[in-house]
Amino acid sequence: MKVIEYSEFGAPFEVCKCIEVDDPADPQANEVVVAVEASAINPADLLMIRGQYPGPDTLPARQGIEGTGRIIAVGPDVKDYTVGDRVLLLGRGNWAEKVVCLAEQVVSIPEEIDVLQAAQMKANPPSAHFMLQDYVDLDEGDWVIQNAANSAVGHHVIRLAKKMGLKTINIVRRAESIDALKAIGADLVFVDGDDLGERVQAEIGDAYVPLAIDAAGGKPCEHLADCLSDGGVVVNYGFLDGEPCSITPTHTIVRQISLRGFWLFERLFGKPKEEVENVYAEISDLYVSKTLYSPVEATYRLDQVAEALAHAERGGRDGKVLFVMKD
């Protein structure tokens, strides 16, 4: 079977190779074998391969944070799953035609969810959900501001905020993204810049903005803090700028703005299996109802790994790049 593997850290399109390996052995107690149908290329995947994000301690390693497929074998004592079940993969190493994992590392998902949507459900939708729920008690009519608004998390924040009766201020790097975000429900969209706080205030005045969601760090993080109401919270979840999060003493001391960090791995995957299943049942319902949708830029086979990873790191995308295991 085909898998993607890398033996050194570096540029993903250079160091990742598609290789042939033996099929998984028969599953052991509490294991399942899953035939992977699709696996998204997540920004964290790319950072891990570059050695810039918590990942494998030893090489060679396989990659693929997200994925979906069908169970093709179950080990002894597996009671909750049977052959043919459609599942979301919660482990890593999913850029492969087949994976073997513990039964605790999969959750069932509905048949009616499109496979390319299912392959993007693990990371971004629950991240958006928890960042809107965990840090600030938001009331209907409150404003939330975010950068990287054209990202997958950004799209989910817009859609979930709309469902919650919240208003969103969305920050992008290029003006070409503005109309597409407004089409999915963004209330306001601005191109980032040092004067962002002034432009936002000119638009909304003294409206209450208690929460900022930051994917970048660096100066973009500071720009979000400029837009917050006093006592607001900046939640950082990403590394896009490549620089440390920047907020000023005026933000933290005078305006009592705080900076928090969010990592889905810590927030969800150490929890009991029932809690994890409940989260993904809720996420699944949001996909079935079309409340959530994840744009797709392109799909590639595993043996097109260099082209796929180069595309995933290209600027100006309008959706995720995914591996699909069958044409």
For this entry, give a set of tags.
single chain, 327 residues, alpha/beta, Quinone Oxidoreductase, Chain A, domain 1, Rossmann fold, 7-stranded mixed β-sheet, 6-stranded parallel β-sheet, 12 helices, 16 strands
- Number of H/I helices: 12
CATH topology of the largest domain: Quinone Oxidoreductase, Chain A, domain 1
- Mean pLDDT, as a whole number? 96
Parts with pLDDT < 50 across at least 5 consecutive residues: none
Largest sheet: 7 strands, mixed
Report the end-to-end length measured between terminal Cα atoms.
15 Å
SSE order:
EHEEHEEEEEHHEHEHEHEHEHEHHEHE
**Sheet/helix structural class:** alpha/beta
Gyration radius, rounded: 20 Å
Percent of residues in helices comes to 25-40%
Shape: globular
- CATH architectural group of the largest domain: Alpha-Beta Complex
Task: Tell me what the structure shows.
- The protein is α/β, with parallel strands linked by helices.
- The chain folds into 2 domains: 2-121 and 294-324, Quinone Oxidoreductase, Chain A, domain 1 (Alpha-Beta Complex), CATH 3.90.180; 124-264, NAD(P)-binding Rossmann-like Domain (Rossmann fold, 3-Layer(aba) Sandwich), CATH 3.40.50.720.
- The chain contains 12 helices and 16 strands.
- It has helices spanning 12-15, 43-49, 115-118, 124-134, 152-164, 178-183, 196-204, 218-227, 249-254, 264-267, 273-288, 305-312; strands spanning 2-6, 16-20, 31-40, 61-62, 68-74, 86-89, 98-102, 106-108, 143-146, 167-172, 188-191, 211-214, 233-236, 258-261, 296-300, 320-324.
- The strands form 3 sheets. Strands 3, 5, 6, 7, 8, 15 and 16 form a 7-stranded mixed sheet that branches. A 6-stranded parallel sheet has the order 11-10-9-12-13-14, with helices on both faces.
- Helix 8 links the parallel strand 12 and strand 13.
- Helix 7 (196-204) packs parallel to helix 8.
- The longest helix is centred in the C-terminal third of the chain and has 16 residues, at 273-288.
- The chain is globular.
- The two termini are 15 Å apart.
- The mean pLDDT is 96.
